[in-house]
């Protein structure tokens, strides 16, 4: 007589899924001990859209001034941005006066920021938002304003006294790799010593790569998120190059990301001029898969309803903010179709299929359900919901099934697989 299995097949498969959850839940490398950025930071950052425009006389509506940030803060509160999670309003380069004050402290340009950063922070906080600011580890900022080299402690104290909630710390005009590394560490410790909760956004690995491979385990101990690659531009070529770099280096960077520390592929340029609708969908979907900080750089005063709805899509934001905190990765690339996936809480998975072909029309792609989620996403079956480009339930799929999807050129179909 043959012995029968003591565990039904479906039960055995569920045990496998449980073990997968346990494995995915192991914590990553030790993180910066400030209790912040437990999910990727969300907000607005001025640089890509407004750059270093200081001509407030000739271009009063687009220069870097307290007026611009107050207008954005008002819209973030009134137009639903804060409600879906965009809470940090971030100043980038070009806010400073050309020189420090008599006590060696940074100061805002008095004409463009007549209320000072303290006054702007009070206004931003009154809207239920948080204020981010910019400085540089070197002798000058990238635009030539005073750098923080030799002033890390006083600058950290100044930012805390002003009520700043996030610091983006750039890496221009640093004279050596040693000064770069020491400077990023020094500022991290100085911020923590202030006693104020300040998210620390680094560009440390971006400036390290030309010299040697960054130590991401160490970087994570000092930074809440970190830039790896060049600045994003308002173009498909730029977005595509960021995705290509990320997938090419995923073995080095994916596992280090998690609650408290994130890889930062740079700003969302959705709602601007350079991306088609399908390309905007691709950026939103893949930034969610990559567990990236969602820092928009656009003009909230003149954003289309379609772009606004995409950026405020609660289902996609939920993937980005998933508390399991595991960054997704590219599963495979075949014939200009890329498949990315990300493990989520409750044994769910997010899957993005990207059509990189830029000639012809929409393409159909068939994928084996058993190949997704380390082979465990749909054991014995799962409910598949398409979230982008539009939401619709695709139904229940067996582990042995195939899924056929139509993807527009340079577009993405984002799916959620749930038990």
From TrEMBL:
Catalyzes the hydrolysis of glycosphingolipids and participates in their degradation in the lysosome. This is Alpha-galactosidase. Its EC number is 3.2.1.-. InterPro entries: Aldolase_TIM (IPR013785), GH (IPR017853), Glyco_hydro_27 (IPR002241), Glyco_hydro_27/36_CS (IPR000111), Glyco_hydro_b (IPR013780), Melibiase/NAGA_C (IPR035373). One of its GO terms (molecular function) is alpha-galactosidase activity. Pfam families: Melibiase_2 (PF16499), Melibiase_2_C (PF17450). Residues 325-411 form the Alpha galactosidase A C-terminal domain. It catalyses: Hydrolysis of terminal, non-reducing alpha-D-galactose residues in alpha-D-galactosides, including galactose oligosaccharides, galactomannans and galactolipids; a globoside Gb3Cer (d18:1(4E)) + H2O = a beta-D-Gal-(1->4)-beta-D-Glc-(1<->1)-Cer(d18:1(4E)) + D-galactose; a globoside Gb3Cer + H2O = a beta-D-galactosyl-(1->4)-beta-D-glucosyl-(1<->1)-ceramide + D-galactose. The keyword Lipid metabolism applies. Residues 1-31 form the signal peptide. GO terms for biological process: glycoside catabolic process; glycosphingolipid catabolic process; oligosaccharide metabolic process. SUPFAM superfamilies: (Trans)glycosidases (SSF51445), Glycosyl hydrolase domain (SSF51011). Belongs to the glycosyl hydrolase 27 family. It is found in: Lysosome. PROSITE patterns: ALPHA_GALACTOSIDASE. Keywords: Disulfide bond, Glycoprotein, Glycosidase, Hydrolase, Lipid metabolism, Lysosome, Signal. Homodimer.
